[in-house]
Amino acid sequence: MRASTRYALSTVRHGLSAARLLGGRQLARGTPSNLPRRLPYTYFSAVRPVLCVPRAVFSQASVADSDRPDLFYHPISIPHSVDSSSSTPVYALSFLPTPPSSSRSATVIGWLPAIAKGTSGDIEAGLDDFVENPNFRSLMQETIQQGLREGVDEVWTNGALQLQHGWMHIHDSRNTPPLGRIGDPDDIIGSVLVEDSKILPDTYQAMPSYRLCTSDGPIQLTEGLARKLRTVLEDVALRETS
């Protein structure tokens, strides 16, 4: 386990979010005195990691994740769902270092509110408050299918060689299953048919149960697909600002 990992069984601030993420388990109270208040950080419960973004630093500029340098958090505001004249402060999660052109940009993976729903005061949001961006989800799935067609990722090319025949699941690398096992439905991005050790990209099917963000963290693609997605996102960002 990396030295940068910090542990917390629970906190008064984070306990509600962590408890829901852990299936309602009650966690012990108390916060390590050395746990920094910075954006962003991953603190670990006794079971699984929980990402929290402190409300106290919302006014700061965009920052990169200290453990996932490919992820960036952009403080923006989105129109209120009921009162369009008001807005809600959120963090837009993205693979791009520059802020999105709009709050609904397809380059935004999703949004993490500065304050958890139904709370008041200095209560911070956790992963269970994360809201997926359907525009990004569609773009991501299209990009993966295109990446498989172009053979941009040797992980899946080699996987097809080993499988030879049958359906191959495209897993999220945040929670890779043991060899020969099927991963959690939340972590299976899609499936594609393999025949004679070759991927048939037109057979690719997105997995409806896949989640862009789980208690294991945000989406994490294998290297080749990650590069392909970033290139596509950069092109989309240029079109959105032109």
Describe this structure in words.
This protein has a 5-stranded antiparallel beta sheet, covered by helices on one side. Strand 2 and strand 3 form a beta hairpin. 33% of the residues are buried. The chain has helices at residues 15-21, 134-150, 154-163, 223-241, and strands spanning 6-7, 41-44, 49-52, 63-64, 72-79, 87-94, 108-113, 131-132, 166-171, 188-195, 198-206, 213-214, 217-218. It has 242 residues and is of the alpha+beta class.
Estimate percent helicity.
Answer: 10-25%
Total count of strands: 13
Shape: elongated
CA radius of gyration is: 19 Å
Give me the number of helical elements.
Answer: 4
Mean pLDDT over the full residue set: 77
Numbering strands along the chain, what is their spatial order in the largest sheet? 4-5-6-7-8
Instruction: Report the major sheet.
Output: 5 strands, antiparallel
Q: Segments where pLDDT lies below 50 for 5+ residues?
A: 1-50, 52-59
What is the CA-CA span between the terminal residues? 44 Å
Strand content: 25-35%
Q: What would you call the structural class? A: alpha+beta
Q: Topology as H/E string? A: EHEEEEEEEHHEEEEEH
